[in-house]
Amino acid sequence: MKYMLYYYSYANLMSISFRAAETPATTESGTVEAPSQMIPRTLFAEEHEVFRDSVRRFVEDKVAPFHDQWERDGVVSREVWLQAGAQGYLCCSTPEEYGGTGAGFLYSAIFTEELARVGASGPAFHLHSEIVAPYLVHYGTEEQKRTWLPRMVSGETIGAIAMTEPAAGSDLQGIKTTAVRDGDDFVINGQKVFISNGQLADLVVVVCKTDAAAGARGVSLILVERERAGFERGRNLEKIGFKAQDTSELFFDDVRVPATNLLGQEGRGFVQLMQQLPQERLLVALRSVSIIEAGLDWTIAYTNDRQAFGRPIAGFQNTRFKLAEVKSQAAMLRVFIDRCIELHLEGQLDAVDAAMAKLLSTDMMCDLLDDCLQLFGGYGYMWEYPIARAWADARMARIAGGTSEIMKEIIGRSLSGNRPRTEV
C-alpha cells in the first residue's frame, strides 16, 4: 500500500494506524485525534479551534491534492495564494485598517501547523504573512502600507525578503548589494541568492548597503517591485527538498527606485532585521515541532499496518521503544515552543530565547525524522512517502533563518557576558 499523504485525508491516514487495534478517539466535532496526541495545549481558545477546522479543510481540499504537481513544477500556483487570501488566511496579524483581520500571530501559527501536518512545504504563506508583511506594518510609511498591505492580504501581491548573497549568508554586514542615492532615487546593484518566493514575488524587501563604509549602520531596506527595469530573476534553484517552493537568484542591474521606496529610516535596516528575526526563528521552530508530530503520526500508521514475520512492525519491542522516544521528545519540545509563543505574544521573546527555540527544534526534527524514516525501511526512501519528503525538507531548517552554529553563538555569548556580534 502506498502512503501518499497528498491523496488521503488526515482522517483516512489515521484510520489505517488503528485498523487492527482499537477505534481512535474523536473530539466533540468528530475529528479523529492523532495517535501521537500530546499533552493538552492551553494556547488556543474556542475561536482558534474553529479557525483550525476551517484551515484544515482548506489545506486538505486546496493544497494537499495539488502539492505533488507543484513539486514537479518547482512552484505553487498563484491560484492557491488568491484562494488563501479570499478565505482571510493571509497576513492574519495585519491591522484591519490595511485590509487584514488583525486577528494576531496565533492564527498564522495555526495555518503553519496545518500545512506542516500534511507535509506541505511548498506554499510559503508564513514567510509572506509573518515575515515580510510585518516589515511594512512596523516600518512602512502610510502610503507604503495602504499601497501594498491590502494586496498582500488578498494574495494579489506576493512578498519576499532578499538578504542572502553568494558571499554573505549569516554575516549580513558582508553584503555587497548597494543602493546609491541619485537625486530622488536609489540605484541598486548587486545579487541575491536562495530567496524564497523568488519566482512568484511581486514585492521584494531588499537588504542593501546605502553606506558601504558604515558597516551595520550602512544597511537599509528598500522595496523593489517586480516590474522595475534592471530587476531580473535567475533560475529557480533545484534543491534537495522544499521542491514545490520557488527559491531563486535575484539580480539588480542599475535598478532605479524612488527614494520613497526606502522602508524605515536609512541606515536602520540592520536594527530592523534584528527586531524581526525572533519571530522568523519562532516560525521555523513552530513548523519544526509540527513536522515532528506529523512524522510520528505517519510512522505509527505505517508500523501498525506493515507486517513482518507474521505481525505488525509496531508489535516489535524495538519499534515501540523508538516510537516512545520520539513521542517523549516531541511532547517536551511542544511544551517549550508553546511557551515561547506565549512569550512572543507578551512581547517578551528575546533573541536568545528565539535562538534556543530554533536550535533545539531544527536539530531534533532532523534527528527524529531520521529515526522515523528508518522504521519505514526501503519505503522511507521513496519520494511518494511523506516521511521521505519531510526528511529531505528538514535539513534546510538548520541553515535558513540563521544557521545552528550562529544560534549557538548567540546563546553562548549571552552566557559569557559578551554582547552578541551582528551575525544573524
How would you describe this structure to a colleague?
By secondary structure, the protein is α+β, with helices and mostly antiparallel strands. It folds into three domains: about 5-155, Acyl-CoA dehydrogenase/oxidase, N-terminal domain (Butyryl-Coa Dehydrogenase, subunit A, domain 1, Orthogonal Bundle); about 160-270, Butyryl-CoA Dehydrogenase, subunit A, domain 2 (Beta Barrel); about 270-415, Butyryl-CoA Dehydrogenase, subunit A, domain 3 (Up-down Bundle). Helix content is about 45%, strand content about 15%. The chain contains twelve helices and ten strands. A four-stranded mixed beta sheet has the order 1-4-5-8, covered by helices on one side. Strands 2-3-7-6 form a four-stranded antiparallel beta sheet, with no helix packed on it. α6 packs antiparallel against α8 (about 270-305), α8 (about 270-305) packs antiparallel against α11 and α10 packs across α12 (about 405-415). The N and C termini lie far apart (about 45 Å). Mean pLDDT is about 90; it is low at about 1-35.
Which runs of at least 5 residues are low in confidence (pLDDT < 50)?
Answer: 1-33
The name of the CATH topology of the largest domain is: Butyryl-Coa Dehydrogenase, subunit A, domain 1
Taking all Cα atoms into account, the compactness measure Rg is 22 Å
What would you call the structural class? alpha+beta
Kindly, what is the distance between the CA atoms of the first and last residues, rounded to a whole number of angstroms?
Answer: 44 Å
Q: What is the beta-strand fraction?
A: 5-15%
CATH top level of the largest domain?
Answer: Mainly Alpha
Label the CATH architecture of the largest domain. Orthogonal Bundle
